[in-house]
Amino acid sequence: MRRGPILALLGIGTLAGGIAAAVALFLPWLPPVASTQRARMDEVFWFVVVICIVIFAIVVAALVYSVLRFRAAPDDDSDGPPIHGHTGLEIVWTLVPTVLVTAIGIFSAIVLARNDALGSNPLRINVTAQQFAWSFTYPEAKNLTTGTLRLPINRSVLLTFTSKDVIHSFWVPEFGQKQDTVPGLHTTLHITPTRVGTYPVICTELCGLGHAVMRSTAIVMERGAFAKWLKSQTAATSSPSTAVSGAAVFKNNPCGSCHTLTAAGSTGKIGPDLDKLPQYAQEAGQPLEQFIHTSIVDPNAYVQKGYPKNVMPPFANLPKAQLDALVQYLIQSSKKG
Amino acid sequence: MTATTADHDAHTPVPQQRGTARRLLLGPGWIRAVSIAALFGAIGFGIVVVLRWWGGWHPILDGQPLVLVSGLVAAPLGFLAGIGTFDYWTYYALGHPTRPEDHSSHGARSWRDYFRVNTDHKVIGVQYLVTTVIFFLIGGLLAMLMRAELARPGMQFFDTQTFNGLFSVHASLMIFLFVIPAFAGLANFAVPLMLGAADMAFPRLNALSFWLLPIAGLMMVLSFVVPGGAFACGWTGYAPLCSTHQPMGAIFFNQGVQWAGASSIMTALNFLVTIITMRAPGMTFWRMPLLVWANFTTSLLVVIATPFIAGSQFFSMFDHVMHTSFFDASNGGYPLGYQHIFWFYSHPAVYIMMLPGFGIMSEVIAVFSRKPIFGYRLMALSLMAIVVLGFSVWAHHMFVSGMASWLRVPMMVTTLLIAVPTGIKIFSWLATIWEGKLHFNTPFLFALGFLSMFVIGGLSGVMLGAVPIDIHVSDTYFIVAHIHYVLFGGSVFTIFAGMYYWFPKMTGRMYNETLGKLHFWLTFIGFNLTFFPMHLIGIEGMPRRVADYAPKFAGINMFISLASFGFGASVLVFLYNMITSWRHGPIAPSNPWRALTLEWQVSSPPPTFNFTEIPQVVGSPYEYGVPGAQHAILAPTRAHETEEAEVPVS
User: Fold this and answer.
1) In terms of CA atoms, which chain A residue is nearest residue B153?
2) Would A271 be classed as within a structural domain?
3) pTM for this structure?
4) Buried b or exposed e, range B536-547, using 16+ CB within 10 angstroms
5) pLDDT digit string (tens) for B139-169?
6) Of A132, A202, A200, A215, nearest to A166 (Cα)?
7) How far is CA B596 from CA A318, B428, B590, B629, in A?
8) In angstroms, rounded to a whole number, what is the distance separating the alpha carbons of residues B398 and B261?
9) Which of A29, A110, B309, B461 is most exposed, with minimal Cβ within 10 Å?
10) pLDDT in tens, B367-409
11) Is the Cβ–Cβ distance between A252 and A319 less than 8 Å?
């Protein structure tokens, strides 16, 4: 090949690669890093992105150069040179990609193995997924259960997932870790948080009508603050007063992700508006207290018009004290609203 | 269609026989199709009622078994019997005299012949393409509705049930009723001609395969109007969400997939037998055009893999309707089992949706570059390599599913290795274009668009192959971007290229080149503006399949929605061009592209039985620029006269 085409190819390739690199570098692709696992994932990400940009630049250079250089004149009916192949070239573009993907594979396998390795003295948390909420249980703290995930910084965490109904998936973009929760299986995930902050917990596996609102929050705390929080929560659960407890039951269960209730500040729209409970009870022809109670333990007994059946899971397993507190709380809140 | 009619103007119509009314009612056709469908539907209904009454259940309280047996199984079978797909086989089975040289249902003499059971592969090819374009439009419309809802966070136009139904039906239509069968349609038209054969090996089976398609498509679309709404569990239909937590619409998906899958398998068998046994003398495997190679390898994938999705959908439907527990963990079922079986089909399905496009690309790129395909044998072998590797990568869809964790690294290695044969193809096409004499007609523009877009889709595929990256981005908008770069930038661009390329051969008329180019540029720009930003929001943290999203993604989603409306509107240019050119376009010469493959050596449209005499193949189909090279020797063309003589008189 003469020097002209090589220079032109280099020029177009550099331009294409430069544009791709600018897109990669100047757009805010990745959310902030908040775990060691995410930091390692980012290394693989940038390694692969660099390879991809080089390949993309080569292809674009060849393509654009050909389009500019080899256009036939409108009246040119001749054929191109009858080149049938070139064994050397074919070997090159078989071997080079093989080497590149092998390198990606080895790098990824190493990172995967390190991300799977659990640190010493891990904090164990059991995560329960159900339509459409997360709950987090701390076996170390008398099975304290919350709707928000709180983690101490720089401590290895082992999450063990179970699902009550369908498959969900736990994802915190800043942790770079994701795991499906499968009914009948106990799946696990390792996270070592490295940055104090508040991050979204997102369900990424389509799990039904409330999938988009199946969100929670992960809060990474300094170790001292975490220990203090754990202690205060453990103390609080042992001395409940009715009114406070009703609000807490509402909050610690997934009610708010589907239902609107002004008193609790929830705005879910999957299920009926709980501010209108007295009106619904009237339409159903039942006393308010009985109506609320039945609707919680056996939601399909009466389904408000305009809402589908079989969406709300029955909460028949709530302890009686909590259930009664929740019913009283809803009566008071809805009458106010 | 008009061109075909024009050819046959001189032909004496088949004389009307006695008992016209009786034939109208009882002969194969739409009246009989509707009445037998109703009859079969009623029988199905009756069987369910009687069996339920006998078994001690309430006979009609549970609508699902009734709808399933009567509406989704019996009535479609009745429709097929009524329209006439089984007539010949029924005669044969009942011992009636068969008519070995009966070509009464072969070829199209007027537009009506496209609306009945027709055994001519060229008519079937056009039937496939028109049907699939209709479902493409419906699927596209659903996508527009989806983007309207997604333009702003929060809920605006639809409830979640409808929204989830929109994306589920959109994907199912595009995959099962557009990309896969549109390729089958193009290949149906082109492959027998390219092989030098008079038709497919089993023309009646070919007709049956086509008529299964509208049934499958209608089922998926109609699921919107059944009580409870459409299936809302995604086209992947993961259990147990789809098998136990869905309204009745779910069984419309389960059954729709069965009908489309059956159609696919029959067509693939037909292609395999045709390609193996009906090649013209001298057409060795190494002289086959790469489109034929591509459909040979695709058919291998279809025949081996499709039964797996059939199995997964049967199990899922049994769980739904008959309360079995294949995937119900609380009764000993195994939800991940569904995913393994499903992806054992659905990953090879990605190649089923890609390899025929590779074939089209090889034809278009060689012809419009006026050069032989670079490295022909390696191109064919890389297709075979993709088939083999394609069966060993399914679990890369399941890196975060909770399957056995050791499975991830081997699946990653095989997944990454598929980039090698795919890369060989890309580089060989580039080398084919290099130093060619490029003619920028619409098919070639779409081919170049394919090359650039498919490279992006392939590279994001390599990123997804690396397990740590996949863990971060799986089930996010990054996946949505990736699959659209592969399936639209890849497959749909090649379908457009193929439709423009063979349009003159199919219709006998030329399409409008200016409108074709306008269509390409609108599609190319609209496509990139719509799908490229999705990479970004995916990595940043927006999950897919959500109607509502975090406010920080509002701006970019509004941008995507606006771009997608422009992108959607570009299809109107395509439609206008196809319809007006089909009716009034300039008459096409037999070989407008000066191509060497056999379909261009006969008239446009080809005679009913393709060739006066079976051609003798003497060389490669891509010998552009080789002085004196010939692909095949054909009998002297007297297409019009021979066609007249060959039309059977019944």
Assistant:
1) A212
2) yes
3) 0.90
4) bbbbbbbbbbbb
5) 999 999 999 999 998 888 888 889 999 999 9
6) A132
7) 76, 20, 12, 10
8) 23
9) A110
10) 999 999 999 999 999 999 999 999 999 999 999 999 999 999 9
11) no
Q: Provide the H-helix boundaries in B466-512.
A: 467-473, 477-486, 493-507
CATH number of the domain within which A206 lies? 2.60.40.420
DSSP per-residue string spanning A175-201: GTEEEEE-TT--EEEEE-B-S-EEEEE
Q: Is A56 among the domain residues?
A: yes
Indicate if A172 and A233 belong to the same structural domain: yes
> Residue A31 belongs to what domain range?
3-68+89-116
Burial of A310 (0-12, 13-18, 19+ CB in 10 A): middle
State the complex-level ipTM: 0.88
- Are the Cβ atoms of A97 and B430 closer than 8 angstroms? no
Across A71-80, A285-294, B515-524, the highest mean pLDDT is recorded for B515-524
Q: Apex CA A69: angle with CA A64 and CA A73, to 5°?
A: 125
Domain CATH code at residue A254: 1.10.760.10
Nearest CA in chain A to B547: A212
Closest by CA position to B161, among listed B228, B253, B223 = B228
DSSP summary character for residue A75: T
B112-584 folds as Cytochrome C Oxidase; Chain A (1.20.210)
Residue A20, in any domain of the structure:
yes
Q: Is the CA virtual torsion B373, B376, B378, B381 positive or negative?
A: positive
Structure tokens at A295: 């609707």
- Scanning A94-133 for CB atoms below 8 A from B yields 94, 97-98, 101-102, 104-105, 107-109, 111-112, 115-116
8-state DSSP, B62? -
Tell me phi and psi for residue A145, to 5 degrees: -120, 130
Residue ending a domain, choose from A176, A208, A237: A237
Same domain, A167 and A110: no
Taking each helix axis from N to C terminus, what angle separates B376-390 and B355-369, rounded to the nearest 10 degrees? 170
Shared domain check, A191 and A151: yes
Query: Domain tally for chain A?
Result: 3
Q: What is the pLDDT of residues B453-501, one digit of tens each?
A: 999 999 999 999 999 999 999 999 999 999 999 999 999 999 999 999 9
> In whole angstroms, what is the distance from residue B312 CA to residue A68 CA?
50
Retrieve residue B44's tokens. Answer: 């199905």
Element (H, E) at A172: strand A168-172
| Distance from chain centroid for Cα B365 | 22
Confirm whether A199 is domain-assigned: yes
What is the predicted pLDDT for the residue at A2?
66
Query: Quick one: pLDDT at residue B124?
Result: 96
Are residues A148 and A107 located together in one domain of the fold?
no
- Report d(CA B611, CA B615) in Å as an integer: 7
Q: Is A82 close to B372, i.e. CB distance below 8 A?
A: yes
Residue of A42, A75, A84, A312 for testing the chain B interface, max B β-carbons within 10 Å: A84
Average pLDDT, chain B: 90
pLDDT in tens, B551-605: 899 999 999 999 999 999 999 999 999 999 999 999 999 999 999 999 999 999 9
Distance of CA B16 to the CA centre of its chain: 38
d(CA B97, CA B92): 7
CA B78: distance to chain centroid? 24
Residue written as tokens 């049930």?
Answer: B161
For chain A positions 18-77, those within 8 Å of chain B (CB to CB) are: 27-31, 38, 40-41, 44-45, 48-49, 51-52, 55-56, 59-60, 62-63, 66-67, 70-72, 76-77
